[in-house]
Batch of 4 targets.
Target 1
Amino acid sequence: MNVAIFSAKKYDREFLSAANGSCHELRFFEPHLNEETVGLAAGFDVACVFVNDQVNAAVIANLHSLGVRLIALRCAGYNNVDLGAAKQQGITVVRVPAYSPYAVAEHTITLMLALNRKVHRAYNRVREGNFALDGLIGFDVHRKTVGVIGTGQIGTVVAQILIGFGCSILAFDPVPNPTCHSLGVQYVELNELLAQSDIISLHCPLTPENEHIINDAAIANMKNGVMLINTSRGALLDTVAIVDALKSGKIGYLGLDVYEEEEEIFFEDRSGLILSDDVFARLLTFPNVIITGHQAFFTKEALLKIAATTIDNITRFESHQPIEKLAG
Ligand code: NAI
């Protein structure tokens, strides 16, 4: 099949080309897919997209008229795709439901530990010949209570790792996971999790119902000085409320791998440009905030699995083999 790969980076070329061999005709496009760039899909059977491509109803209608029959997401989350519109246009949508929960879970733990022990500050100090410890005091993670919101594949691995540290895990998920039960995770209501946890980590998908699940009211319910980690999707947090809580000290540590307006910022080298997002710019000023640019998934193992599953999805679609579909 002819496959148009949007938001393509060097590593996408490398891993997808290797997984593909000579199965399909792959064409790599650097721009995101959106209403301005959708014309690039003319003549292709498949549009292969990533987290910040805008696959809304207008884009889908255009893809349909250009002859695209399959939208292949090379990620797990699909909040950026209008599945109803795809269904209406008869376009099949597939994704990579599981690639490496370990990649994202381990990055989550990296953010927690780095924030706690202020590794980002210590690194800079030592390089400047400053070996003073003032301001670098941390806490033992051992025996702390961690709230995990969403106990699917990633949340479960996070819980598993933290149990190894000697933490108590509280969880909130409308569909409790038996694996977590057997690990000793205690399911509670969201308000109780927010009130009892020293560290809170988000691992649920973004849906219209849980957008800004962490807002002013939720923050008011948290412990003073709480650590909040979001490696899931940016719009789960009301970032303006988060900035206020950092200013007041209510939130003591913030680790983000995602941001609600990340589409305009992440995945590009903008080091020579002026940052026009004032909320994001304010976040960068806090010494107790670490932000990474949506890199939690970025391990060799995950990229290999993403590429293999994406090519397999396309092959299965072409040869009418069973395939797990989001739409179509
Ligand atoms: P999963 O589908 O295995 O688990 C999600 C869990 O969240 C399910 O158990 C579900 O019942 C639960 N859930 C749904 N709505 C909820 C709510 N309102 N409150 C609490 N729990 C809720 O998904 P997986 O693989 O664990 O991924 C979780 C999320 O991580 C993805 O949806 C995606 O947004 C994000 N992600 C981020 C990556 C990154 O590089 N930063 C990479 C991969 C995923």
Note: The domain at 2-99+300-318 is CATH 3.40.50.720 (Rossmann fold).
Target 2
Amino acid sequence: MTAATPFALSNEPPRPASHLFYMTRLRRPLVDRAEGIYLWDTQGRRMIDGSSGAMVVNVGHGNRNVIDAMKQQMERVTFAYRLHFENEPAEELARHMAEKMPGDLDRIFFVSGGSEAVESAIKLARQWAVVTGQAKRWKVISRFPSYHGGTMGSLAVTGDLALTETFAPQIRDMPTIPAPRAYRDRDNFSMEERGLRYADMLEEKILAEGPESVLAFIMEPIGGAATAALVPPDSYFPRIREICDKHGILLIHDEVMTGAGRTGRYLGGDHWNCRPDIVTLSKGIGSGYAPLGAMAASRRLVKPVLDAGGFQHGYTYAGNPLSCAAGLAVLDETERLGCVENAAAMGELLKSELEALSTRYPFVSGVRGKGLLIGADLVADPETFAPLPKVKSANQRLIDLAYERGMIVYSRRIRGDGIEGDNFILAPPLIITAAQVGEMVAILADTLDALAAELDLPVNR
Ligand code: PLP
């Protein structure tokens, strides 16, 4: 294994101007190859994938069995349009996935990514309401902060002003309730009481909006990009289900980030035996080998929609045989390699190591998460969670300092609704070993030392 060498961008050999553009002008090294939890650039420098890309590469990079399964599929057929043909990989994958879903969520609709899965869920919910005589229901309540995707429909239920406010005039305004960030509350309530209080905010919102107008509630069972692995108190989940049932509202679990074993159970909601009506998945189910997303829906919703003439929705690449062959092999590998169990065990280790670091670096506070989705906040005061000033760009500096030390960390600054602050997520591939967790923690400690020195933050030595 090549030792990590600095990724200072000033060391980059000159490259021609790029015709590509993404979010910023930021340039990164050219990737060459990847294996396990590591990526190498064309200069031979190695990087630990501490966030599995964007919490995607669950079974690790370069898995031979997945690659071979895809090659075999490519030799047969890579595309057959779903209105012309069914295909075995899609059938088989849907059958396996249905077995992993809770309750009667055994109707699977494939898409190519997370935003498409969320769009599909919102549209299925709406169509179900229309065909069952509830056409007044259209509002989808979501949480603030939250992240549900980048398309207009998924942005409408995303709680992050940094991403939504420019597009506000083009987006249908949807109601939100506060995400259950109970770990930050400074009151005399127990965590369980806080969980109920946060859940009850859903009922208050439903009543304020008019229950007959509310279609669904969408939430990430364990938080992702916006709340960095937020885990609600246990009491939250049953109360949310109870409120949805009481008012005839559909419960959508967005498991795009938490699904496919990431949190140490196949679904994040499985930690609480949740019974949502719709589950959205992506990221880990394709594990970076092919663009793949899915919606799993209750039979109770799908039947009346199909009976009434069909689901008025679909994408060209839906159920693509190559993506589904990749998804099928990923599912096999998830089981063969014991990824879910390893995520639980290595997640415990990583979380306890991060808790130890938060004692040493008090600007790291609120360590949380399950399995290999571990998060924390970067704060000015660990008790009050007062945010660091925006000018410090703590999130970007954390990313860059870790990057220079050979590790990818996922970090964001959230803004809006009286909420502001930096957080980060550690989410390596689910095949990580204890020794590799140690490697990540050593780089992170070094990174936090550098961050403290640069931003003048306290360190307990
Ligand atoms: N939903 C959740 C919970 C996500 O974390 C994401 C992406 O981060 C999405 C939806 C959107 O997925 P995609 O970027 O694949 O469209």
Note: The chain has two domains: 9-62+338-455, 66-336.
Target 3
Amino acid sequence: MSESTNARNLPVVDLRSDTVTKPTPEMRRAMAEAEVGDDVYGEDPTVNRLEQRAAETFGREAGLYVPSGSMGNAVAMRVHTRPGQEIICEEKAHLYGFEMAAMSALAGCLARPLRTPDGILRWSLVKEAIRPRQGFRAPTGLIACENTHNMAGGQVLPPELAEEICDGGHDAGIPVHLDGARIFNAAVALGKTVRELTWKFDSVMFCLSKGLGAPVGSLLVGNREWIAQARMHRKILGGGMRQAGVLAAAGLVALEKSPSRLHVDHENARLLADGLTGLPGIGLDASQVRTNIVIFDVSRTGMTAGKLCEQLAAQRILAHAVNLSTVRMVTHCDVDRQGCLRAVEVMDGALRRTVVAV
Ligand code: TLP
């Protein structure tokens, strides 16, 4: 019997992203029982409760429930900037490279992407990129950070560096936004609260629908006045969701219950990374894996990332080809230790077959 015939009996191990998680039975129960109202009138009690809990968790005055992380970032960019300005961010930032040019299409801004070796923005770099107030330069309207940094392999932004950027930006009169899609992962990795990691940022976006396992939704948190403006921009973008309490109910469960289990995803990512390191042709430094994302180079395997992912998929292991030579695997609540070990085993088999065939 071939390996792929054997694999047909095994469950899929979906490591493409932590966005693929399915709601838990507790989330589904909460969704079925949710009290709802029209959120555009501010009358959905479950959405209101979620927004309030999010604000409390981050030590802020107010929160806003948005359908996705991308919309949260788009709203933040629109509120902080005006068309014709520049937004400083790290070169592999999600809001620059993975949001369909929303920065220009929806906020009318140019990106000022800064290259770093490790995905970590530093004030020393940012300060050089701030445009002087001159008649022919697009003024800097916003600085955006990302924590954890997705495409830098779930890299954690150290709090002292984040604070330095916020202080520097504020002294220069520039607001600082945090794409904290996975800020709870950063908090677990650093043993700090999300409040401690984010208090100096002017606005924070975080996702319920990634490691926290909710089916839909993200939040923006900030001060009352800023969130009131954000609410208007959410509506402009078509994000007024009416009886969204059925979704927010799952989000409330995610916010209360999920952070305490994220360390398991981090342990599994480390297990995966340790197993992958040393396989023929794989370029990966497992010591850099601190959260739930494992990104590795496959350019010396004799296969493109796409081809390798196809081979894995035939054995029911799903991974994401980031580009021709890079693969990403993300751990989450719907994959366990066993699944990660099987992913390593299948990868080993795929690489050995190619090496023999080459
Ligand atoms: N990231 C997704 C893809 O879009 C790449 C993923 O699979 O990781 N900020 C960060 C740091 C993100 O990783 C993502 C999603 C978003 C924002 C956008 O969130 P959604 O998908 O809810 O729009």
Note: Residues 337-357 form the longest helix (21 residues).
Target 4
Amino acid sequence: MPHREKTRILLVDDVPENLLALEALIRRDDVVVHKAASGDAALELLLAHDFALAILDVQMPGMDGFELAEFMRGTEKTKHIPIVFVTAGGRELNYAFKGYESGAVDFLHKPLDAHTVKSKVNVFVDLYRQSKVLKHQLETLERNRQEQEALLQELTETQEELRKAITIRDEFMSIASHELKTPLTSLKLQIQLRQRYLKKGDASAFTIDKIAKMVESDDRQIQRLIRLIDDMLDISRIRSGRLTVHPATFDLSELVRDVVDRFSEQLAAAGCTVTLTVPGPVVGYWDHFRVEQVVINLLTNAMRYGAGKPVTIVLEAGDGRARLSVRDEGIGIAEEHQARIFQQFERVVSASQIGGLGLGLYIVDQIVRAHGGSIRVESALGKGSTFIVELPVEGNRASDAS
Ligand code: ADP
């Protein structure tokens, strides 16, 4: 606390007896008196300590009291120290020093009167202490203000983040409802149609061929629903750090071939031919289900955004890594969007063009990371895209996707 610090007073006089006499007059327990016998000695002390008051003898050989005072007023550190001149001369000398504007100046006249000296010194000591307390209070106030400002800034940022999160959530809710509703509406219409035939007793809509088509179409809609719900569940798993990887040893080339086989009809319906190049078995230690999810996602994206053009899948192995690239010749992705498509809810096309929640690549990225691998895209707008996944063959034995 500044007011508990001792207060320093500087006495400057070339006559040692004067210094001692003055010191005896102003001695107080809470005051430290520094004495200097010349202007030069005084300057040294002035630069080393903070003084509440300097009492200067006007008449000194070398640098006199006024010269010392001029110097003090011209120096930042000593500019505001109140000065009391001790003079033997008459009161007309009072105005010989012109440095009034920068700080207090007062005069003591010889012979010194004990009471006057004491009360003058007390005034300056009190003033000094009050100004110290005030300075401390001001500093505290300023600190508080800065803290409040920082807090306000933080609050504003949080508010902005919240607002963004709410907007994203609202958009997501509306896209998700739309995406869920589309297959459900289609299923409902099919059912209504069948009910009409049944009511009329018309069996022509239920030949083996037609039932086979119905089942296939129903299954497609249901698969679509399942995929959407699975994606949403995966997102909540990733958020809570529960997307764990359960690795086992398997052949990735077999998995890729199998996925392409399973999607052959859908690919054909989309008009995409698929060329698959695999070097032979690529055995690694990965989570079969999750890696399958990655392959399905990249393949269905190539199909959905591939504009019915050929899709080329290449699997390679080397340097302890497996590399899978899925290339399409479809709509492509402009450079400025290529980084954000791996973030959740980020889409480049609008839902009315091609439906989707913008979750697939985010989940893929999380799965690949959980395996210690990486994913990137090379693409040009209108020319097509190549997604390249690299997985360490040893997987990432002690990791999850949190
Ligand atoms: P979704 O396809 O459900 O929107 P994804 O996370 O799989 O979600 O993809 C995010 C976005 O990246 C897509 O909306 C699309 O704009 C873009 N995208 C993904 N794959 C391709 C691709 N093969 N070609 C062009 N754009 C793609």
Note: The two ends are 49 Å apart (CA to CA).
